């Protein structure tokens, strides 16, 4: 027979400098981490901490908070101290808030070089303060706020313009011997964004934070981010990710986590392998898959559950999974590790699968 081919894997991670964002290591020696950003007014400490707790529970590794006003800056020490995950302060125009965030004990600060003019003479002081506190800085270039100088040079936010902007900003910090930098170059077009990161990956060894900016509502944003991150992570490019959605931030974490799981960059947890259904289906597959998914939500073990509409591919897939059902003739054959353990009437399929899943899960280690 054919020799067994090795399991397919992604390209090796691009070698980067290593950073410490609070307790989370960032760079090629560390797992890719998932980030999000709070939507609360940062100065509202309780609401912000409440949302951070929800994000933490959803699996968020690092959280970013906006800091547009003095009230927000004043809230940073309490938030940085009470959050269970590292907090990055997001600062656009005001160097004084950069210093405040560093003093506040934020795990990192994000600055936008589009606004560098106001920063220019401050870079040295910022680099010194960041160095003193061991605070990394993320240089976050956004297509929407590209440095006017580069806008003029390139005519629009091309991949080259985005990369040049970020590298130029990084060089300003490097001049002061500061290299604890992470870079992002976000664009709403995944094709432009992917190219911008490829250029950056070739030209520097800073860790990269991936994001498709203004990606849109959940459906579109999920697809844009998954396509773009997949294209980059496939090449080993990307050290932290943020899925931007016009949706509650917990949704961003779910999508980001799922992207990493799909690429085997995170252990998979519950996975429902359900067929798309077709003219052969002898059961309402959509409803069955939805009910099983709902019944098993929040399961922390790497369980694969197959829900198949008929007996053509059904038994095959159901056998590959830990647990599965192949339906036909108003009945469901329930498989556990490839063996039919029982056949139940259609109306008992869901409860039987959930029961069996719970039983199997008890003997499994969490992913
Ligand atoms: Fe169609 Fe059966 Fe395949 Fe489902 S498992 S898509 S019902 S052939």
SSE layout and pairing:
Blueprint: E1 19-21, E2 24-26, E3 33-37, H1 45-58, E4 62-66, H2 70-82, E5 87-91, H3 95-103, E6 108-111, H4 123-133, E7 137-142, H5 148-154, H6 159-175, E8 181-186, H7 190-203, E9 209-212, H8 218-233, E10 240-243, H9 249-262, E11 271-274, H10 285-295, E12 304-308, H11 314-320, E13 323-328, E14 331-336, E15 339-345, H12 349-362
Parallel strand pairs: 3-4, 3-10, 4-5, 5-6, 6-7, 7-8, 9-10, 11-12, 12-13
Antiparallel strand pairs: 1-2, 13-14, 14-15
Bound molecules: iron/sulfur cluster.
Polypeptide structure, described:
With 367 residues, the chain is α/β, with parallel strands linked by helices. The chain has helices spanning 45-58, 70-82, 95-103, 123-133, 148-154, 159-175, 190-203, 218-233, 249-262, 285-295, 314-320, 349-362, and strands spanning 19-21, 24-26, 33-37, 62-66, 87-91, 108-111, 137-142, 181-186, 209-212, 240-243, 271-274, 304-308, 323-328, 331-336, 339-345. Strands 8-7-6-5-4-3-10-9 form an eight-stranded parallel beta sheet. The protein has a five-stranded mixed beta sheet with strand order 11-12-13-14-15, sandwiched between helices. Helix 7 packs parallel to helix 8. The protein is elongated, with a radius of gyration of 24 Å. The two termini are 34 Å apart. The structure holds iron/sulfur cluster. Residues 275-278, 280-281, 308-310, 312-314 line the site of iron/sulfur cluster (SF4).
């Amino acid at each position: 027979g054919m020799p067994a081919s090795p399991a397919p894997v992604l390209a090796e991670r691009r070698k980067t400098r290593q950073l410490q964002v609070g307790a989370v290591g960032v760079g090629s020696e560390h797992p890719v981490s998932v980030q999000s950003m709070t939507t609360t007014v940062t100065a509202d400490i309780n609401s912000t901490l409440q949302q951070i707790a929800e994000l933490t529970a959803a699996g968020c590794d690092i959280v970013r908070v906006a800091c547009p006003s003095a009230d927000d800056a004043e809230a940073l020490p309490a938030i940085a101290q009470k959050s269970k995950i590292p907090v990055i302060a997001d600062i656009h125009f005001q160097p004084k808030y950069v210093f405040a965030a560093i003093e506040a004990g934020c795990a990192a600060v994000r600055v936008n070089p589009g606004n560098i003019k106001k920063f220019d003479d401050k870079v040295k002081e910022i680099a010194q303060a960041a160095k003193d506190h061991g605070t990394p800085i993320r240089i976050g270039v956004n297509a929407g706020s590209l440095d006017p100088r580069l806008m003029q040079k390139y005519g629009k936010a091309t991949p080259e313009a985005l990369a040049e902007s970020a590298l130029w900003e990084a060089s300003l910090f490097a001049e002061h011997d500061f290299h604890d930098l992470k870079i992002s170059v976000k664009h709403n077009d995944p094709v432009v964004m992917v190219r911008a990161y490829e250029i950056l990956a070739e030209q520097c060894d800073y860790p990269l934070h991936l994001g498709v900016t203004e990606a849109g509502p959940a459906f579109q944003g999920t697809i844009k981010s998954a396509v773009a991150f997949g294209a980059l992570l496939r090449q080993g490019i990307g050290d932290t990710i943020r899925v931007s959605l016009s949706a509650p931030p917990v949704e961003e974490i779910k999508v980001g986590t799922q992207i990493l799981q799909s690429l085997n960059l995170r252990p998979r947890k519950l996975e429902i392998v359900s067929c798309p259904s077709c003219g052969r289906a002898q059961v309402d597959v959509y409803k069955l898959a939805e009910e099983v998914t709902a019944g098993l939500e929040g399961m922390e073990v790497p369980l694969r559950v197959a829900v198949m509409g008929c007996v053509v591919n059904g038994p095959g897939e159901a056998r590959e999974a830990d647990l599965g059902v192949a339906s036909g003739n108003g009945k469901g054959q329930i498989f556990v590790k490839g063996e039919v353990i029982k056949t139940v009437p259609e109306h008992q399929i869901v409860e039987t699968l959930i029961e069996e899943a719970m039983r199997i899960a008890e003997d499994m280690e969490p992913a």
